[in-house]
Design a protein that fits this description.
single chain; 205 residues; alpha/beta; 7-stranded mixed sheet; globular
Length: 205
């Protein structure tokens, strides 16, 4: 493309211009990384080992958008997708319709999608406005003080955990957006299980 070629020629003609451009791109990348980070510490929260595949998903109790409360333990016996998100996060917004569609298609088989809004770096009005605009009604939990986000040691949004019927984390994905096909591939084996197998890891190698 002539315009792109001209711009590159202009940059490469002067080494200083190239360095300024490179520094600008790096600065923008660092700013995005900083803006999308999750706060390192939340008052009153405890430091736990990083949740990972083969270990129990840490329990939590959070407020729903309706003002009720819900705990992870309430859903034992079902396959759970825990999706940490924020309304300003582009990849979060892009993958939310796929989560909604999967939940609608598979909830009768025991699938639960818990979309945990990282409200510590978002707001309830912004999250609600996004859900209404996209016509989404999947279960949304409000992490006002970031306690659940911190307990799962989430460092980037979106982050998604796939939890089996026994409450064991089977896999996780950081970043996105995650496609509908990938989501289905992750949950189908878990939905096919009856949940009676002993998969709890005691921490021994």
């Amino acid at each position: 493309m002539p315009l792109v070629d001209s711009a590159m020629s202009w940059l490469l003609a002067d080494l200083r211009r190239w360095w300024v451009f490179s520094a600008g791109v790096l600065a923008l990348g660092l700013m995005w990384t900083w803006a999308s980070r999750v706060p390192e510490a939340v008052s009153g929260s405890e430091r736990l080992p990083s949740p990972r595949a083969g270990f129990p998903a840490p329990d939590f109790t959070l407020e729903t958008l309706d003002g009720d409360t819900a705990s992870l333990a309430d859903y034992r016996g079902r396959v759970i997708i825990l999706n940490f998100w924020a309304s300003w996060c582009g990849p979060c917004r892009a993958e939310m319709p796929a989560l909604q569609a999967l939940w609608e298609a598979q909830r009768e088989r025991g699938l639960v999608v818990l979309a945990i809004n990282s409200t510590v770096q978002d707001s309830v009005p912004a999250a609600t406005a996004f859900l209404q605009k996209m016509n989404l009604n999947l279960p949304v939990l409000i992490d006002r003080d970031g306690a659940a986000t911190q307990r799962y040691l989430v460092r980037a949004l979106p982050t998604t955990f796939f939890v089996d019927r026994q409450g064991i984390i089977r896999s996780m994905m950081i970043g996105g957006p995650v496609s509908a096909a990938v989501l289905q591939t992750q949950v189908e084996p878990l939905l096919a299980e009856d949940g009676t197998a002993d998969r709890v890891t005691d921490g021994a190698d």
